[in-house]
Design a protein that fits this description.
Length: 252
């Protein structure tokens, strides 16, 4: 596992799933971590467990993102890395798609990415370095019949992140993406929305899709990769999508 000694890191969506795994484990790797979420109960719990600082921030709100970054950077004493995990991924089969859901997903997943990345840029540009890690999804690249709106939001995130990586090169700020296929509590919530027939189709769809026919593990598969991406060992990597997905996109 890569060390992160002295790294000052902001994690969004840090109260659950991959964000929570990041927040709870990075301090033991030497990082100082502040994290955002809107789930205060879980946020406070993670804060107690990890020693990281929890700040209530809705990433779709420009005002809250700005205030959150100010508080976090003051507490951290600077900013080296931003890991933007925050997103929602409800099941939206096409017959259930509506404009309100479309707007909500884009507000959190796409607008949130823009707001977080641009605020990070404000703090990183004058110091002459920085590391932004966004999260995309296989749903941005392959057909996702259960989540067409989510896939559209991640398509936006992907295009934005690749362009941002190019535009921020003169500032020595790198931008990469993680494309995970990791089983998290968010996956549990997604599957819980399915009918029995949809759930069976979802499970059957994983056969032959990835190594072991199931999503990866938070600790064994995800954590070492996000630690690498946040570390100086990845300092010559930018504009890339790191697929932690057991070959999901490769085989499709």
């Amino acid at each position: 596992m890569e060390r992160l000694d002295g790294k000052r890191i902001i994690v969004t969506g840090g109260a659950n799933g991959m964000g929570r795994t990041t927040v709870e484990n990075f301090p033991s790797l030497g990082a100082k971590v502040a994290f955002f979420d809107v789930n205060d109960a879980d946020g406070v719990e993670v804060e107690k467990i990890s020693g990281a600082k929890y700040i209530h921030v809705d990433v779709s709100s420009e005002e809250e993102v700005q205030k959150g970054f100010k508080e976090a950077v003051e507490w951290l004493g600077g900013l080296d890395v931003v890991i933007h995990c925050a997103a929602i991924a409800p099941a939206t089969p096409i017959e259930y798609c509506d404009f309100a859901t479309w707007k909500k997903l884009f507000a959190i997943n796409a607008d949130g990415t823009y707001l977080v990345d641009m605020e990070a840029f404000k703090y990183m540009k004058d110091q002459g370095y920085g590391n932004i890690i966004n999260f995309t999804s296989a749903s941005a690249f392959i057909v996702s019949p259960f989540q067409p709106i989510y896939g559209a939001t991640k398509g936006a995130v992907t295009s934005w992140s690749r362009t941002l990586a190019k535009d921020l090169m003169p500032y020595n700020i790198r931008v990469n993406m993680i494309a995970p296929n990791i089983w998290t509590p968010l996956t549990d919530k997604l599957v819980a929305q399915f009918s029995p027939e949809e759930k069976q189709a979802f499970m059957d769809g994983m056969k032959g899709l990835m190594l072991g026919d199931k999503p990866g593990d938070l600790i064994e598969d995800y954590l070492p990769v996000i630690a690498f991406a946040a570390s100086d060992s990845s300092k010559f990597i930018t504009g890339q999508t790191i697929c932690v997905d057991g070959g999901t996109m490769m085989v499709r």
